[in-house]
Design a protein that fits this description.
34% of the residues lie in helices and 15% in strands. It is an alpha/beta fold and 381 residues long.
């Protein structure tokens, strides 16, 4: 009588190999995370990401309240992500892998086309356009006086010139302008998109280049019935400019340069920042050396600015309801006016303007980029 010994079934070689590889992968991941944890504790913490232009998350307070509410876990996750060692290098590696190996056409909505970094803007949101026009008409009805004229102009974003040609989804920009013109019946529409092209914008930033928009200022001035200077002295900042998209994209692209335009008469301009209660220069060179060099133009995102031209041969006044694109355009228009007022209703409620501005005798220009109009929830009421 033969006795058969009990034995465990033997794993096939391929299954053994897979199990072995899984163990190696788990151990490697654990070692990587452990090393990251200890490095995160030992390495100094940054408070600001220069590339992303935002403050980094701080370690949350450890207490019974934060633990029970779940706040500690949520905020600690953000803190650990923002302060993980070699975060910038890992971000670039992740983007390179996604774009070069996985062949993704964009990364978090940003794509690279013809040397330009572009934030994909799609689809056209008609309800947002209607909401924007409603905001503008409410302002017009509340503040216009006898003889007030109103104009509207749309600034296309870079997708207008790069999305379709590079195979990305694109809004119908002609339809966008047509909708705005038809909906804003209270204002006369001034088209400027035909004067623009991709190289009129910075490669790493959404904004247009001041030295390339003199023709835009000229058309606006002509349609609004004023004359402006057409010749300027061009100055170039002696530092590279890496715009808002550069840090967000985490991709290597060539730097931009910032140029700005001056004329003798500009030395006489008086510019007042109502938000901070102080006089400011047209070109704030200290800001050009800061985190966002585009803030060179009229000190960046301010809610209310008054610009006066003491050498004006007219008493005409203009209120520009605007976004950040107007910061570099307004100095070119002031030559045709006694006073130009810049109001950014993303930061100041329209009903507060009447306490600060005398609207008597003022004309209105609503000048906005498609980036704001397609997301008009940012406009205050």
């Amino acid at each position: 009588m033969h006795t058969v010994k009990n034995s465990q079934p033997q794993q096939p070689p391929s299954q053994k190999s897979a199990t072995h590889n899984s163990h190696i992968l788990c151990i490697s991941a654990a070692l990587f995370l452990s090393a990251g944890f200890f490095l995160n504790i030992l390495m100094p913490k940054k408070e600001y990401s220069a590339s992303e232009r935002r403050p980094l998350a701080k370690c949350p307070p450890f207490s019974t309240e934060t633990i029970q509410s779940g706040r500690f876990a949520t905020e600690f996750e953000d803190f650990a992500t923002d302060t993980f060692p070699f975060r910038e290098q890992l971000r670039r590696l992740q983007v390179w892998t996604s774009v070069s190996l996985c062949r993704r056409r964009d990364q978090n909505g940003l794509y690279l086309a013809e040397g330009h970094l572009v934030d994909l803007e799609y689809p056209l949101q008609e309800h947002s356009l209607e909401q924007a026009v409603q905001r503008f008409e409410e302002i017009y009805q509340k503040y216009h006086t006898e003889g007030t004229r109103a104009w509207l102009s749309v600034i296309p974003d870079k997708n207008c010139f790069l999305a379709k040609q590079s195979g990305h989804l694109s809004m119908d920009y002609a339809e966008f302008e047509k909708m705005m013109e038809q909906k804003a019946a209270f204002a006369e529409y001034i088209q400027i998109s035909d004067l623009l092209e991709k190289d009129d914008y910075y490669k790493t930033d959404p904004h247009w280049r001041q030295e390339r928009i003199v023709d835009v200022a000229k058309r606006l001035a002509q349609r609004m019935g004023v004359k402006i200077r057409q010749t300027y002295t061009v100055h170039t900042l002696d530092r590279d400019f890496y715009g808002a998209y550069y840090g967000q994209a985490a991709r290597e692209t060539s730097a931009d340069t910032i140029q700005y335009l001056t004329a003798d008469v500009m030395d006489q301009y008086f510019v007042y920042d109502w938000q901070n209660g102080t006089e400011i220069p047209i070109y704030y060179l200290d800001k050009a050396a800061g985190r966002d060099p585009y803030e060179l133009f009229l000190s960046g995102p301010l809610s209310l600015i008054t610009m006066e031209n003491p050498d004006a041969d007219t008493d005409k006044q203009l209120v520009i309801f605007r976004d950040s694109f107007a910061s570099s355009l307004a100095p070119l228009l002031l030559g045709g006016y006694d006073r130009v007022i810049l109001a950014d209703i993303r930061y100041i409620r329209p009903q507060a303007l009447g306490d600060l501005i005398d609207f008597a005798g003022c004309d209105f220009l609503f000048l906005y980029s498609t980036l704001v109009l397609n997301h008009s929830e940012t406009l205050l009421r």
